[in-house]
Amino acid sequence: MGKGTLKQILLLTDGCSNQGEDPIAIAALAKEQGITVNVIGVVDDDRISEQGIEEIKNIALSGGGISQVVYTKQLAKTVQMVTRQAMTQTIHGVVNRELTQILGQDQEIEDLPPEKRGQVMEVVDELGETMDLDLLILVDTSASMKNKLGMVQEALTDLSISLNSRIGSNKFSLYSFPGKRKNVDKLLSWTPKIESLTGVFHKLSSGGITPTGPALQEAIEMFPRKSRRSLISDDEYQEESGM
Amino acid sequence: MTSIKKSQVCNLPSGTKLIGKWHKRPYKIVKELGNGATGSVYLAESPLGLVAVKIGLNSMAITSEVNVLKHFSKVQGQILGPSLIDVDDWVTNEGTFPFYAMEYLKGQSLFSFINGKGSEWIGILMVQLLGDLDRLHQAGWVFGDLKPDNLIVVGHPTRIRWLDVGGTTLLGRSIKEYTEFFDRGYWGLGTRKAEPSYDLFSVAMIMINICYPNRFEKNQEGIKQLKERIQRKPVLRQYEVVLMNALQGKYGNAQLMKKDVISCISKSKHSIVDSHKKQPTKNNEKQKPVKVRKEKSKGIIETFLFGSFLLLAYILYLFGQTM
């Protein structure tokens, strides 16, 4: 059957990048390669700058994904929702392109009468449930994130429960940035289940740098390159999305 | 972008008129009934009388919900959720918003009903709910986001109904929407796969929520924490066996849990009756000091007996209705 694989990066951060390439540009690059970038801004109180929120929004926008700023306490549920919504959105985008090809220019799901829309949506739901998912989680472990990492851990375990309840299979990997000597550190390589994350975030960097852009760039490289045709990441799709 | 849209469909003033793009049916907003993640629900006047209209932000989410409501109408016999009346788009200067109209259910929230009528209704309402769930499961669906907010108690005859069926999921898929307190995944007691036992866990948590209206957060003890909370409240202790089974996923279907709830209700009646029956005979063997109490409690015994008789009669009546 080969329904293909959805590729997503989930970035968890609490503020602005301040080193290296512009993360918004890198996110656009990811999108061109069929990888969706979602961003969750994690705040304790209202201590996040206007600029930080703006960057979070724009990374997701150019990465074709979804962004949300949340309080640490609501993290678990948000991580789950954002991931699911982004999957639906990506599939929706692909289905829309197919519809345009069948029905002609400017015909999207919204232009169909409600009765037909329901049938299309069933296909979208079905795909969201059965497609495979490669999810790379990229966690900002700069000093200001220190007291939030406990909740991040919990949220990721929770996400694993949700995604593993799907019919399609999943692969997760976990990276943190900034790394010790490099831009990113690998905490977990591709695995079907996130089970025990206890102590995984022990190496915290205390420096003030947040190299979001370079970290994203390395994350893109971590996706397995497959030559076989897949729904989301084949060449055809890339050409279309370039238009 | 979404923030502008959100303000547009929230807080529509009463008197706002909307006409569907496709079916041209007119609606006039009376008041807002509530709002959630996917949109706002309004009470509205329509050519068919009062209806509830849900206006959404996102066509995908609304379409999914409509799909569910449509499937509900195919479930034979009993009406489970509110019935679907119309699906359309509302075109405004700000953009196009998908909406649907459904039956308007008028009633009381679960909490206010039980506060008013007493805790003996908990068991009866749960029996009704479990009967509905059983029918839903047999039709191939799982409710998902089962919680007091999504339930309503309508009158004459008293019946628990579902208000919002947006989270309903096909059996075997993964749960679309959930609320942490009622989600077994949150408590570390199971997956989020849509299966009957997922809903039955939520039913148990609804009963717990009735006794702990402010809810509580998990510590790391899992089932032990919930057990301890159950034992702290007499109303819950009465159902302890059922609750513990449901929380640990031991019921394969709603029918089994329903049976156990019923036997809990009747057992509790028997135990009251039994203890009062025994008391006098024992007291006769013993001496005076108890005698005073006996006379006092006589009136209470009678009320208890009468009350439990009425309750039993009602359960039997319900059975006749739901079977």
TrEMBL record, chain A:
* InterPro entries in the record: VWF_A (IPR002035), vWFA_dom_sf (IPR036465)
The residue ranges of the VWFA domain are 1-91
Pfam families associated with the record = VWA, VWA_2
Write down what this protein is called.
VWFA domain-containing protein
Source lineage: Bacteria, Bacillati, Bacillota, Bacilli, Bacillales
Automatic annotation (TrEMBL), chain B:
Q: Which PROSITE patterns match?
A: PROTEIN_KINASE_ATP, PROTEIN_KINASE_DOM
Q: Where is this region: Disordered?
A: 272-292
Q: Which domain of life is it from?
A: Bacteria
Q: Does the record bear NADP in its keywords?
A: no
Q: Indicate which residues the UniProt annotation says bind ATP.
A: 54
Q: Where is the Protein kinase domain?
A: 27-273
Entry's transmembrane regions: 300-320
Cellular component aspect of the GO annotation = cytoplasm
Gene Ontology MF terms = ATP binding; protein serine/threonine kinase activity
Q: Compositional bias of type Basic and acidic residues: which residue ranges?
A: 272-288
Q: Which InterPro entries match?
A: Kinase-like_dom_sf, Prot_kinase_dom, Protein_kinase_ATP_BS
- Keyword Electron transport assigned to the entry: answer is no
In terms of SUPFAM superfamilies, this protein maps to: Protein kinase-like (PK-like)
Q: Which UniProt keywords apply?
A: ATP-binding, Kinase, Membrane, Nucleotide-binding, Serine/threonine-protein kinase, Transferase, Transmembrane, Transmembrane helix
- Designated name of the protein: Serine/threonine protein kinase
Q: Which organism is it from?
A: Anaerobacillus arseniciselenatis
